[in-house]
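batch job 7 of whatever, protein = Tetratricopeptide repeat protein
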Amino acid sequence: MGRTVRRWVRIGLGVIADSRDIRRELKWHPHRLMTDRDRLLREEEGEARTLRHTALRRRRSGQPAAAVETYGQLVAARTRAWGADHPLVLDTRLALAGTRAEAGDGAGAARAYEQVLPDLARALGEEHPRVPWARRNSAYWRVRPGWTPPLPVRDELEGPVREAVVLRKEPDGFGALLRLARLRWNQGDEAGAVDAYEQLLAERVRVRGAGHHVVLLTRLTLAGTRARAGDGAGAAQAYERLFDDMVRVLGPRHRGTRWTRRQRDLWRGGAA
């Protein structure tokens, strides 16, 4: 019991520290981190805020079937507030589709991705990363109508590398992106968290090179974040591409390599 209490105290202190740091970053460098979507999400209140928290609680506590209904209500509430083509409304529809898949309704998820695809292309443009997100998941879940996907545990965040050690050796902007990703995740903007991790990955590749172990572990984190954001097809592709690089750089017995192989096999073998 004592160990459990200490663990939750550490988690709580970490959340407080992250909140303090992100507030400082936003104050000093708002142009570098915040977008209009971030501000709207932070200021969201009333029915939409309540629905968002309820949907997140249900989805992340292993009740995706209950979360499906709540996400549907959240889509309606946000559409009334911001309009059908607002990026966060479209991201909420992506979250609803991903939650349908988590609930075992692969056919319903495929239909939901098909329905949101033309709206994404019209509102955001064909080159926006959400468009291939919807397209590949539509095809992915069409052949997995009754499969419930595996849910990656959150402990894989940044892999087995202790973040404090990594961040001490990186530019300040890297830590800001990592905290922004966590902030978006905690706010329920899973797709936005994927965006922040992609920015962090690009910066780490630029500074360290594509074969650095920290870059590989960031790719592992990004793959898991994609999976939990509902992008099952993107996660499957990411784990597939990452595994060979993990073996080459870290070796087959490394914890990150073994975790990547396990996730790759789970997502690849879903149709069975």
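notes: The chain has two domains: 44-142, 154-271.
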